[in-house]
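Before a colleague's protein record goes any further, I have to sign it off. My question to you is simply how this chain folds and whether the tokens agree. I do not need a full report, just your reasoning and any doubts. This is what I was given:
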Amino acid sequence: MKKALLAVVPLLLASLSSALAEQAPKDQGSLPVNSRIIFLHHSTGEVIWNSGVSEWFTKHNKANGTRYSIEERAFPSGDPYPWNNYPYDYWNIWVRHAGSSAYMTEPTLEMLTKDSQLIVFKHCFPASAVEPDGTPDITSEEKTLVNYRLQYNALKAKLRLFPKTRFVVWTGAALRAADTAPDQAERAKQFFDWVKSSWDEMGDNIYVWDFFALETDGGRYLAPAHASEDSHPNTKFAAEVAPLLCRRLIDVIAGRGDSGSITGK
């Protein structure tokens, strides 16, 4: 009996090792060395952008012989589409009004993916004022967990229709404790935790940069040390995390999106 068990153990270990290997993140192929990146943002994103994102890529290209280009764009523009970049708005422009023509002057994914191999998008801090759930409605602008999840699931299905383009979505910008309520902050954290643990899946063309965790130091609120006079990040924090965003984008470009750090650290 003892000899039989000893003979079985290596087989069990081999089987377990094989199963773990299948579950481990697998690197994907790299994007071209001249890939174009577009960063869609509003004011919080502008603070990070102005802290050296473009300059970081210039130095990276010189040191590594690459020709990555990165540009930024306010999205939506606020003229005439409202200055809102919440889950509803990305769903409204990219899913509900998909197609080859702009919606209220805002480019659809069909348009953006023609010229960009990597698309980065985010939400500004009002998205973190998450209200109690009501009746689920994907067409609703109400900021609730149930609506956010419906809109994000529809977005995921849409993004996957463009396999030649990779997408990086930020977990949302946090609010200061003074600018929100504990229940709102808890629901925001629940949503961004869901984005990381359930919505984001390995093996596709969608990746996450965990900005929320960086801003909150793992908590629910924008940490006082990282805040300006309101819920925008301050320049010191922006200078610290801008390189982390860049490193995260390089991981995604290089095919390490599923195996690299989602904070860029």
Q: What stands out?
A: Confidence is low (pLDDT under 50) at residues 4-22. The domain at 31-253 is CATH 3.40.50.1110 (Rossmann fold). The two ends are 50 Å apart (CA to CA). The chain has one domain: 31-253.
